[in-house]
Amino acid sequence: MPTYNIGVVGVGVYGCHSLEQALVANGPGRVVAVCSHDALGAGCHDGRLAAEAERYAAGFGAPLYDDWRAVVDNPTVDLVSVMACPARKAEIIGAALRAGKHVVTDKPLAMTVDEAAAVCLAEKASGRRGFMLAGYHTRPLVKALIAAVNNGELGELKAVSLRLCFMGGIFPGFVPSARWLDEAPAAELATIGSHAIVTLLQLAGGKVCRVYAERKRNFYPEYARVGAEDWATLNCLFDSGLVANLRVGRIPHRIPGEDIALEVTGTTGYAQIAGDCLTLYPSGKTVQAPVNGQQVLNTTFADYYASLAAGTPPPTSFACGLELQKILAAAVKSAATGTVAPVMAPVPIGGVRP
User: Going by C-beta distance under 8 Å and a sequence separation of 6 or more, which residues neighbour residue 269?
Assistant: First the structure.
């Protein structure tokens, strides 16, 4: 397997974890260029960005730039880790793909559906590979549940109930701001909701055609002050007739042993993930797997490297990111209007539908 030279765009941006560290730790990757600039998104260093970015780049022995184009156009860079805010992602990801780079980013893929569609078209034209880190389908129990569904153990899926909470309070060092909210499609609906929606898509397959959503400010005055939700619910109707209910949020307390809670009902069976156990009915078969988040992350990035070598799909593709973006847009519209919103296809670009 070749060594991949990694360029990083966006150090210290809110809501964006440094995926390149996982890339370096779990495969043949090394950071060779770093870009940081306030224009890449609301950040967590509050006036200390330059110093923190310099320290970060020095840790890799990499040069630091304030223009992301210096990273994207660098001929030694093979893979770009785009950690900018969603409002800046499409421009940077598209440029990186056109420059012949592979791209890794977190969720969501862009700010709008049409931007996400443009990213997918750029990926297709480039022949490079995009990976969006999102979803709990890489968790061992969810993997086992997806395998059971694909093996026909539950029959045709009719209903899914999913609860995903980030627990224990606001992420340390994070201060919600109006700028942060302006640079993303939504608050926790986009942050935590993206993980839930991608998990649902990987589990159920098919297309979501309509969404009803509500956004709530239940727990944190810090969120309420900037008009951001810390809780959201979504009801999704698939074109197959499957109905899914998703509840996502950031809560002050912890639910012992819970990583994700899932109930799936099919025509011939039922399955439940609760705590560290998956139970399948009517067989009564159980699978137990305590979650080690770091181990899951390590495995996911090792799988990504393997997908590059084999030319197979990454753990979460940009195409899945586009489907996520369409559902997020419908959810935001539904919550704003109090009505059921259709999931709209992107506007064709250059006469080609993604």
Answer: 153, 154, 155, 280, 281, 282, 283
Q: 63: burial class by Cβ within 10 Å (0-12, 13-18, 19+)?
A: middle
Distance (Å, whole) CA 253 – CA 159: 28
The structure tokens listed for 133 are 């880190």
**Is 219 part of a structural domain of the chain?**
yes
Q: Residue 283 sits in which domain range?
A: 140-290+327-342
CB 81 within 8 A of CB 132: no
How far, in Å, CA of 168 to CA of 297, rounded? 20
Give the CA distances from residue 230 to residues 152, 222, 248, 327, in Å, rounded to whole numbers and listed in that order: 36, 10, 8, 18
Give the pTM.
0.95
Summarize pLDDT for 129-172 with one digit per residue, the tens: 999 999 999 999 999 999 999 999 999 999 999 999 999 999 88
190 and 331, same domain (yes or no): yes
